[in-house]
Amino acid sequence: MKRHLQRELENLKRRILSLGAMVEERVRMAIQALETRDAKAAEEIMGADNEIDAMEVEIEEECLKILALHQPVAVDLRFIAAVIKINNDLERIGDEAVNIAKRVVYISKRPPINIPLDYALMAQKTEIMLKDSLDSLVNLDLDLAYKVVLADDEVDDMNVIHYDKVKDAIKAQPERVGFLINFFQISRRLERIADHATNIAEEVIYMVEGEISRHIKDY
């Protein structure tokens, strides 16, 4: 029975890592579409969201099945509890990639505007946080998980800077408020991806140390 449980846990780990790789690729595609204002690529991201949703449901069902059949304890139970939460965060990251893609489609079909907004650095740091959070999951790397958690404040600060720039642009060109608000939404979506990456890292810390580490930045 124990061997059977371990096989199912290994299969569960492979599936959550596969979902992670898929979500990471969607975020990369969304950021690339943003940089190039590529509406076609953005629409492809929007059309493929069902694949992530379906995998998220399958993984949750697998977790519940293992809990019901094997009633795991200790480390195994912590692993499953963490996977359930990570699974949800990955699905939400996929949603945020779709939200960025929607903003790209809107922006690309309207006349450009000259405002000093550059998302390259914020997008790069968000991508690194997501990659590091997934790598910490693969290797159960505590140092990397803590690195992700501590990096979140920097992305939060960038979001505030972008918000202020958009606010100033709206004051200068109020007739284009509908267009400009999309730029703040892009910044907000990147910040939310970083938040979910932080959640994943915190679940890795929980898996390894057995202690809930949410809000550790506050201490």
Q: TL;DR of this structure?
A:
Helices cover 84% and strands 0% of the residues. With 219 residues, the protein is mainly alpha-helical.
Task: Please give a structural write-up.
By secondary structure, the chain is mostly helical. 84% of the residues lie in helices and 0% in strands. The protein has one domain (2-218): Phosphate transport system protein phou homolog 2, domain 2 (Methane Monooxygenase Hydroxylase, Chain G, domain 1). 36% of the residues are buried. The termini are far apart.
- Shape, principal axes of CA atoms: elongated
Helical percent range?
Answer: over 70%
Broad CATH class: Mainly Alpha
The Cα radius of gyration reads 19 Å
CATH topology: Methane Monooxygenase Hydroxylase, Chain G, domain 1
Could you spell the SSE succession in H and E letters?
A: HHHHHHH
Distance between the ends: 42 Å
Structural class: mainly alpha
Describe the sheet with the most strands. Answer: none
Uncertain segments are none
- Please tell me the CATH architecture by its name: Up-down Bundle
